[in-house]
Design brief:
Elements: E1 2-11, E2 14-20, E3 23-24, E4 28-33, H1 40-47, E5 55-60, H2 69-75, E6 76-80, H3 92-102, H4 107-120, H5 136-148, E7 154-158, H6 166-181, E8 185-189, H7 193-199, E9 200-207, E10 210-215, H8 217-223, E11 229-235, H9 239-248, E12 253-255, E13 260-264, H10 270-279, E14 283-290, H11 294-313
Parallel strand pairs: 4-8, 4-9, 6-7, 7-8
Antiparallel strand pairs: 1-2, 1-3, 1-5, 9-10, 11-13, 11-14, 12-13
Helix pairs in contact: 3-4, 4-5, 8-11, 9-10
Bound molecules: adenosine-5'-triphosphate.
Protein name: Export ABC transporter ATP-binding protein
Pfam families: ABC_tran
InterPro entries: AAA+_ATPase, ABC_transporter-like_ATP-bd, ABC_transporter_ATP-binding, P-loop_NTPase
Length: 314
Protein backbone atom coordinates (compact mmCIF):
# COMPACT_ATOMS: atom_id res chain seq x y z
CA UNK A 1 0.00 0.00 0.00
CA UNK A 2 1.11 3.58 -0.63
CA UNK A 3 0.13 5.95 2.16
CA UNK A 4 0.78 9.62 2.66
CA UNK A 5 0.06 11.50 5.84
CA UNK A 6 -0.29 15.28 5.87
CA UNK A 7 2.00 15.55 2.84
CA UNK A 8 3.24 19.07 2.00
CA UNK A 9 5.61 20.46 -0.58
CA UNK A 10 6.58 24.12 -0.79
CA UNK A 11 8.52 25.72 -3.62
CA UNK A 12 9.59 29.13 -2.24
CA UNK A 13 6.29 31.00 -1.84
CA UNK A 14 4.18 28.33 -3.57
CA UNK A 15 2.65 25.44 -1.61
CA UNK A 16 2.16 22.86 -4.36
CA UNK A 17 0.94 20.06 -2.07
CA UNK A 18 -0.90 21.09 1.05
CA UNK A 19 -1.69 18.35 3.57
CA UNK A 20 -2.62 15.35 1.43
CA UNK A 21 -3.63 12.04 3.00
CA UNK A 22 -3.72 9.40 0.30
CA UNK A 23 -4.15 5.65 0.42
CA UNK A 24 -3.31 3.65 -2.69
CA UNK A 25 -3.99 -0.04 -2.04
CA UNK A 26 -2.88 -3.05 -4.03
CA UNK A 27 -5.24 -4.60 -6.53
CA UNK A 28 -6.87 -1.48 -7.90
CA UNK A 29 -6.23 1.68 -9.87
CA UNK A 30 -6.54 4.83 -7.79
CA UNK A 31 -7.00 8.16 -9.58
CA UNK A 32 -5.48 11.52 -8.65
CA UNK A 33 -7.35 14.29 -10.42
CA UNK A 34 -7.30 18.05 -10.51
CA UNK A 35 -7.03 20.96 -12.89
CA UNK A 36 -3.65 22.22 -14.17
CA UNK A 37 -1.35 23.14 -11.31
CA UNK A 38 -3.37 21.22 -8.70
CA UNK A 39 -0.26 19.40 -7.44
CA UNK A 40 -0.61 15.97 -9.10
CA UNK A 41 2.85 15.73 -10.68
CA UNK A 42 4.53 17.08 -7.55
CA UNK A 43 2.78 14.39 -5.48
CA UNK A 44 3.78 11.65 -7.92
CA UNK A 45 7.38 12.88 -8.00
CA UNK A 46 7.54 12.71 -4.20
CA UNK A 47 6.21 9.13 -4.27
CA UNK A 48 8.73 8.29 -7.00
CA UNK A 49 11.61 9.57 -4.77
CA UNK A 50 12.40 12.31 -7.33
CA UNK A 51 11.40 15.09 -4.93
CA UNK A 52 11.50 15.31 -1.17
CA UNK A 53 8.47 16.55 0.74
CA UNK A 54 8.72 19.63 2.97
CA UNK A 55 6.52 18.04 5.64
CA UNK A 56 4.51 14.88 6.25
CA UNK A 57 5.23 11.22 5.76
CA UNK A 58 5.11 8.72 2.91
CA UNK A 59 5.11 4.94 3.27
CA UNK A 60 5.39 2.63 0.29
CA UNK A 61 4.93 -1.00 1.30
CA UNK A 62 5.89 0.17 4.79
CA UNK A 63 9.14 1.76 3.53
CA UNK A 64 10.07 5.42 3.90
CA UNK A 65 11.27 6.88 0.55
CA UNK A 66 13.35 9.52 2.37
CA UNK A 67 15.24 7.04 4.55
CA UNK A 68 15.15 3.95 2.32
CA UNK A 69 15.16 5.37 -1.25
CA UNK A 70 17.02 2.42 -2.81
CA UNK A 71 14.67 -0.18 -1.37
CA UNK A 72 11.68 1.91 -2.49
CA UNK A 73 13.05 2.39 -6.03
CA UNK A 74 13.28 -1.37 -6.52
CA UNK A 75 9.57 -1.74 -5.86
CA UNK A 76 8.15 1.29 -7.70
CA UNK A 77 8.25 2.70 -11.19
CA UNK A 78 7.00 5.79 -12.92
CA UNK A 79 5.58 6.20 -16.40
CA UNK A 80 5.15 9.86 -17.32
CA UNK A 81 3.49 10.49 -20.66
CA UNK A 82 4.95 13.91 -21.33
CA UNK A 83 8.57 13.01 -20.66
CA UNK A 84 11.05 11.08 -22.71
CA UNK A 85 12.57 8.58 -20.34
CA UNK A 86 14.68 6.48 -22.73
CA UNK A 87 17.98 6.98 -24.56
CA UNK A 88 17.82 7.99 -28.25
CA UNK A 89 21.21 6.54 -29.21
CA UNK A 90 20.35 3.04 -27.98
CA UNK A 91 17.97 0.54 -29.55
CA UNK A 92 14.73 -0.34 -27.81
CA UNK A 93 16.14 -3.62 -26.53
CA UNK A 94 19.39 -1.96 -25.33
CA UNK A 95 17.36 0.59 -23.39
CA UNK A 96 15.39 -2.10 -21.58
CA UNK A 97 18.56 -4.08 -20.93
CA UNK A 98 20.27 -0.98 -19.52
CA UNK A 99 17.38 -0.05 -17.22
CA UNK A 100 16.91 -3.68 -16.15
CA UNK A 101 20.56 -3.85 -15.12
CA UNK A 102 20.17 -0.69 -13.04
CA UNK A 103 17.72 -2.74 -10.99
CA UNK A 104 20.22 -5.62 -10.65
CA UNK A 105 17.83 -8.03 -12.35
CA UNK A 106 19.67 -11.29 -13.17
CA UNK A 107 20.16 -11.82 -16.93
CA UNK A 108 18.19 -15.09 -16.97
CA UNK A 109 15.16 -13.20 -15.60
CA UNK A 110 15.73 -10.01 -17.56
CA UNK A 111 16.05 -11.53 -21.01
CA UNK A 112 12.64 -13.21 -21.18
CA UNK A 113 11.05 -10.23 -19.41
CA UNK A 114 12.39 -7.86 -22.09
CA UNK A 115 10.96 -10.11 -24.82
CA UNK A 116 7.60 -10.13 -23.05
CA UNK A 117 7.60 -6.35 -22.60
CA UNK A 118 8.59 -5.70 -26.22
CA UNK A 119 5.71 -7.93 -27.28
CA UNK A 120 3.33 -6.23 -24.84
CA UNK A 121 4.01 -2.77 -26.29
CA UNK A 122 4.20 -3.98 -29.91
CA UNK A 123 7.90 -3.21 -30.44
CA UNK A 124 9.28 -6.69 -31.10
CA UNK A 125 10.02 -5.87 -34.75
CA UNK A 126 11.62 -2.52 -33.86
CA UNK A 127 13.64 -3.89 -30.91
CA UNK A 128 16.94 -3.57 -32.80
CA UNK A 129 16.28 -0.06 -34.14
CA UNK A 130 17.76 3.00 -32.45
CA UNK A 131 15.18 5.05 -30.57
CA UNK A 132 16.13 8.22 -32.52
CA UNK A 133 14.37 6.58 -35.48
CA UNK A 134 11.22 5.77 -33.49
CA UNK A 135 8.02 7.77 -33.91
CA UNK A 136 6.69 9.62 -30.85
CA UNK A 137 4.18 6.84 -30.20
CA UNK A 138 6.90 4.15 -30.41
CA UNK A 139 9.11 6.09 -27.98
CA UNK A 140 6.18 6.42 -25.63
CA UNK A 141 5.49 2.69 -25.85
CA UNK A 142 9.13 1.97 -25.05
CA UNK A 143 8.87 4.27 -22.01
CA UNK A 144 5.93 2.14 -20.86
CA UNK A 145 8.01 -1.03 -21.20
CA UNK A 146 10.83 0.70 -19.31
CA UNK A 147 8.36 1.52 -16.53
CA UNK A 148 7.53 -2.17 -16.16
CA UNK A 149 11.05 -3.59 -16.46
CA UNK A 150 11.51 -4.09 -12.69
CA UNK A 151 8.04 -5.66 -12.37
CA UNK A 152 7.10 -2.92 -9.87
CA UNK A 153 4.60 -3.57 -7.07
CA UNK A 154 3.70 0.12 -7.13
CA UNK A 155 3.13 1.79 -10.46
CA UNK A 156 2.89 5.58 -10.76
CA UNK A 157 1.30 6.72 -14.01
CA UNK A 158 1.41 10.45 -14.80
CA UNK A 159 -0.64 11.05 -17.96
CA UNK A 160 0.50 7.72 -19.42
CA UNK A 161 -1.59 7.92 -22.60
CA UNK A 162 -0.67 11.52 -23.46
CA UNK A 163 -0.09 11.75 -27.20
CA UNK A 164 -0.74 8.06 -27.87
CA UNK A 165 -2.91 6.95 -30.78
CA UNK A 166 -6.31 5.65 -29.70
CA UNK A 167 -5.63 1.92 -30.26
CA UNK A 168 -2.33 2.04 -28.35
CA UNK A 169 -3.93 4.03 -25.53
CA UNK A 170 -6.69 1.41 -25.37
CA UNK A 171 -4.11 -1.41 -25.20
CA UNK A 172 -2.26 0.41 -22.43
CA UNK A 173 -5.49 0.79 -20.45
CA UNK A 174 -6.03 -2.96 -20.77
CA UNK A 175 -2.50 -3.61 -19.50
CA UNK A 176 -2.99 -1.25 -16.55
CA UNK A 177 -6.29 -2.90 -15.61
CA UNK A 178 -4.64 -6.34 -15.79
CA UNK A 179 -1.68 -5.23 -13.67
CA UNK A 180 -4.06 -3.95 -10.98
CA UNK A 181 -6.12 -7.15 -11.13
CA UNK A 182 -2.86 -9.06 -10.70
CA UNK A 183 -2.27 -7.29 -7.37
CA UNK A 184 -0.27 -4.16 -8.17
CA UNK A 185 -1.06 -0.79 -6.63
CA UNK A 186 -1.52 1.77 -9.41
CA UNK A 187 -1.82 5.54 -9.00
CA UNK A 188 -3.00 7.31 -12.15
CA UNK A 189 -3.26 10.95 -13.13
CA UNK A 190 -4.91 11.70 -16.45
CA UNK A 191 -6.72 14.52 -18.16
CA UNK A 192 -8.70 11.92 -20.10
CA UNK A 193 -11.53 11.57 -17.66
CA UNK A 194 -13.19 8.79 -19.62
CA UNK A 195 -9.99 6.82 -19.00
CA UNK A 196 -10.22 7.54 -15.28
CA UNK A 197 -13.90 6.55 -15.20
CA UNK A 198 -13.04 3.30 -16.94
CA UNK A 199 -10.00 2.34 -14.83
CA UNK A 200 -10.29 3.84 -11.37
CA UNK A 201 -12.27 2.36 -8.52
CA UNK A 202 -11.35 5.21 -6.23
CA UNK A 203 -10.48 8.79 -7.15
CA UNK A 204 -8.99 11.67 -5.16
CA UNK A 205 -9.76 15.15 -6.44
CA UNK A 206 -7.31 17.86 -5.42
CA UNK A 207 -7.22 21.60 -6.03
CA UNK A 208 -4.40 23.97 -5.10
CA UNK A 209 -2.61 21.07 -3.43
CA UNK A 210 -5.55 20.33 -1.13
CA UNK A 211 -7.97 17.42 -0.88
CA UNK A 212 -11.33 18.42 -2.37
CA UNK A 213 -13.20 15.11 -2.55
CA UNK A 214 -12.82 11.37 -2.98
CA UNK A 215 -14.89 8.36 -3.94
CA UNK A 216 -15.77 6.21 -6.91
CA UNK A 217 -16.39 8.23 -10.09
CA UNK A 218 -20.15 7.62 -9.63
CA UNK A 219 -20.02 8.76 -5.99
CA UNK A 220 -18.18 11.95 -6.96
CA UNK A 221 -20.87 12.76 -9.52
CA UNK A 222 -23.60 12.18 -6.91
CA UNK A 223 -21.71 14.10 -4.17
CA UNK A 224 -21.40 17.18 -6.37
CA UNK A 225 -25.11 17.17 -7.20
CA UNK A 226 -24.50 17.01 -10.95
CA UNK A 227 -27.64 15.81 -12.69
CA UNK A 228 -28.56 14.54 -16.08
CA UNK A 229 -29.41 17.29 -18.59
CA UNK A 230 -32.45 17.14 -20.83
CA UNK A 231 -32.08 19.21 -24.01
CA UNK A 232 -35.21 19.72 -26.08
CA UNK A 233 -35.14 21.30 -29.55
CA UNK A 234 -38.39 23.06 -30.35
CA UNK A 235 -39.63 24.61 -33.57
CA UNK A 236 -41.90 27.57 -32.87
CA UNK A 237 -40.47 28.47 -29.47
CA UNK A 238 -43.07 31.19 -28.75
CA UNK A 239 -43.28 33.24 -25.52
CA UNK A 240 -46.16 30.91 -24.49
CA UNK A 241 -43.93 27.84 -24.88
CA UNK A 242 -41.16 29.59 -22.95
CA UNK A 243 -43.58 30.50 -20.16
CA UNK A 244 -44.86 26.90 -20.00
CA UNK A 245 -41.31 25.54 -19.77
CA UNK A 246 -40.44 27.99 -16.98
CA UNK A 247 -43.68 27.18 -15.19
CA UNK A 248 -42.70 23.50 -15.36
CA UNK A 249 -39.42 24.31 -13.59
CA UNK A 250 -37.89 27.76 -12.99
CA UNK A 251 -34.43 26.17 -13.43
CA UNK A 252 -35.18 25.65 -17.15
CA UNK A 253 -32.80 27.51 -19.50
CA UNK A 254 -34.38 28.78 -22.69
CA UNK A 255 -32.47 29.89 -25.80
CA UNK A 256 -35.28 31.21 -28.02
CA UNK A 257 -32.96 32.11 -30.91
CA UNK A 258 -31.58 28.55 -31.09
CA UNK A 259 -34.97 27.00 -30.24
CA UNK A 260 -33.57 25.06 -27.28
CA UNK A 261 -34.95 24.33 -23.81
CA UNK A 262 -32.57 22.73 -21.30
CA UNK A 263 -33.05 21.41 -17.79
CA UNK A 264 -30.60 19.78 -15.33
CA UNK A 265 -32.48 18.20 -12.44
CA UNK A 266 -32.57 14.95 -10.51
CA UNK A 267 -35.03 12.32 -11.69
CA UNK A 268 -36.57 11.46 -15.02
CA UNK A 269 -38.12 14.70 -16.28
CA UNK A 270 -37.76 14.35 -20.07
CA UNK A 271 -41.32 13.08 -20.64
CA UNK A 272 -43.05 15.66 -18.42
CA UNK A 273 -40.99 18.58 -19.80
CA UNK A 274 -41.65 17.68 -23.44
CA UNK A 275 -45.37 17.24 -22.69
CA UNK A 276 -45.51 20.72 -21.14
CA UNK A 277 -43.82 22.17 -24.24
CA UNK A 278 -46.14 20.35 -26.67
CA UNK A 279 -49.24 21.32 -24.64
CA UNK A 280 -48.23 24.98 -25.02
CA UNK A 281 -48.08 24.61 -28.83
CA UNK A 282 -44.36 23.83 -29.39
CA UNK A 283 -43.26 21.19 -31.91
CA UNK A 284 -40.47 18.87 -30.83
CA UNK A 285 -37.63 18.49 -33.35
CA UNK A 286 -35.02 16.88 -31.15
CA UNK A 287 -34.40 15.43 -27.70
CA UNK A 288 -31.09 14.63 -26.02
CA UNK A 289 -30.47 13.32 -22.54
CA UNK A 290 -26.87 13.74 -21.28
CA UNK A 291 -25.75 11.85 -18.19
CA UNK A 292 -23.49 13.85 -15.85
CA UNK A 293 -19.81 13.00 -16.28
CA UNK A 294 -16.78 12.98 -14.04
CA UNK A 295 -15.72 16.15 -15.86
CA UNK A 296 -18.88 17.92 -14.63
CA UNK A 297 -18.08 16.76 -11.10
CA UNK A 298 -14.44 17.98 -11.21
CA UNK A 299 -15.50 21.38 -12.56
CA UNK A 300 -18.21 21.69 -9.90
CA UNK A 301 -15.72 20.80 -7.14
CA UNK A 302 -13.24 23.40 -8.39
CA UNK A 303 -15.94 26.08 -8.65
CA UNK A 304 -17.02 25.31 -5.11
CA UNK A 305 -13.45 25.43 -3.83
CA UNK A 306 -12.84 28.79 -5.59
CA UNK A 307 -15.98 30.23 -3.94
CA UNK A 308 -14.85 28.93 -0.53
CA UNK A 309 -11.37 30.43 -0.99
CA UNK A 310 -12.86 33.79 -1.98
CA UNK A 311 -15.01 33.73 1.16
CA UNK A 312 -11.96 32.97 3.34
CA UNK A 313 -10.02 35.81 1.67
CA UNK A 314 -12.78 38.34 2.39
N1 LIG B 1 10.05 23.22 -9.29
C1 LIG B 1 9.06 24.08 -9.04
N2 LIG B 1 9.30 25.32 -8.59
C2 LIG B 1 8.30 26.18 -8.32
N3 LIG B 1 6.99 25.89 -8.45
C3 LIG B 1 6.68 24.65 -8.91
C4 LIG B 1 7.69 23.68 -9.22
N4 LIG B 1 7.06 22.55 -9.62
C5 LIG B 1 5.73 22.80 -9.57
N5 LIG B 1 5.51 24.06 -9.13
C6 LIG B 1 4.19 24.70 -8.94
O1 LIG B 1 3.44 23.86 -8.08
C7 LIG B 1 2.08 23.82 -8.48
C8 LIG B 1 1.67 22.38 -8.73
O2 LIG B 1 2.33 21.90 -9.91
P1 LIG B 1 2.15 20.42 -10.46
O3 LIG B 1 3.02 20.29 -11.67
O4 LIG B 1 2.36 19.45 -9.35
O5 LIG B 1 0.61 20.42 -10.87
P2 LIG B 1 -0.22 19.39 -11.75
O6 LIG B 1 -1.48 19.14 -11.02
O7 LIG B 1 0.63 18.20 -12.08
O8 LIG B 1 -0.50 20.23 -13.07
P3 LIG B 1 -0.64 19.77 -14.62
O9 LIG B 1 -1.98 19.13 -14.72
O10 LIG B 1 -0.57 21.06 -15.33
O11 LIG B 1 0.49 18.84 -14.90
C9 LIG B 1 1.97 24.70 -9.71
O12 LIG B 1 1.54 25.98 -9.30
C10 LIG B 1 3.40 24.76 -10.22
O13 LIG B 1 3.64 25.98 -10.90
Amino acid sequence: MIETHDLRKRFAAKTAVDGLNLVVPQGRVTGLLGLNGAGKTTTIKILATLLRQTEGTVRIGGLDPVRQPHAVRKRINLIAGGERMVYARMTGRENLWYFGQLYDIPSRVLKPRIDELLDLVGLTDAAGTRVERYSRGMTQRLSIARGLVNDPDYLLLDEPTLGLDAPIARDLRKVVAELARGGKAVLLTSHYLAEVEQLCEHVYVIGDGRHLAEGTPAELITQTGCHRTVRVEVSGLTPEVEAAALAFDPAVRVDSAAGVVELSRPGDVAGALTMAIVAAGGTLTGLEIAEPSLEDAILALNDRSAVAMAQVAR
